[in-house]
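User: My instructor asked us to take a sequence, write out its structure as tokens, and then describe one feature of it. I'm not sure where to start. Here is the sequence I was given:
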Amino acid sequence: MLNRLDTRGALLAIIHSLTFFLIAYLIIWFLKDLTTILIANGLEIPTVWYYHRIDFMIPQSFWNADLVKLTFSGAPVVSLIISLLCLVAYYSVMDLDGILKLVFLWGFIHGWTGFFGSVFVGTLTNTGFGHVVIWLYLNDTARLTTNLVSLFMLFFGGFIIAKPTLISANYYLNFLPHQSRNRFLMAQMILPAFIGLGMLVLLRLPASFEDQMIPFTGLLVILPIFMRRYHFSEMYFDNKPIVLGLEWVFVIIATLLTLAYRLIFEFGIRSGN
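Assistant: Let's start with the prediction itself. The structure tokens for your sequence are:
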């Protein structure tokens, strides 16, 4: 009965989790930016879609409160909807021993930070969703409250998925005792998050500092998972023999999506009048 990740198992967990980290991020990035493009084009704002930004091809003087609110609020709202759908999907499959469920786990984290992280960073830096806050004419107290609420919700997201994250060990282990949880979470969540965030910084250069910071707010979601690792009783999974191997198909998919992300959007895709 496996109750602890050996070196090979930990390495496989890191690779698999990093793979789904990237797949989930790229899918949500595409849907978020596509939403912004469609809204902008519907408002007769021409756009150029790059891998690291969207250029709105109108003079700054053309912007008004309604255009700002509609254009810059769509992507965060879509992120929140996707995160909730991923949460429901993950809860429905978390007891299964397949590896594909990790796309829903990372999808929830990326979607959750795509909303609350965007609100937190945008309000602090007056960028992205911060433009919406500016045009709402909130006073300093309301802006501070918005920041604190978004910060709290980032932590709250981690509390929601703390136990489900531990249950994801059923792909690698038959039994997850307390003494094995540090090693498991290091391989399943912490190292893939840091490696993945580092890769995103490099992939998204020369994205603005503010945009680069939004994915990093996902660490605030992961922190409560690690904090609550001993809160739950020892977990017993299926007793069947576990044979681990690299899931090449998903690694190839992540690689192809990453290449497409840079190559297709490198020079910008124009749309709108």
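For the description part of your assignment, you could build on this observation: The chain has one domain: 7-271. Try explaining in your own words what that tells you about the chain.
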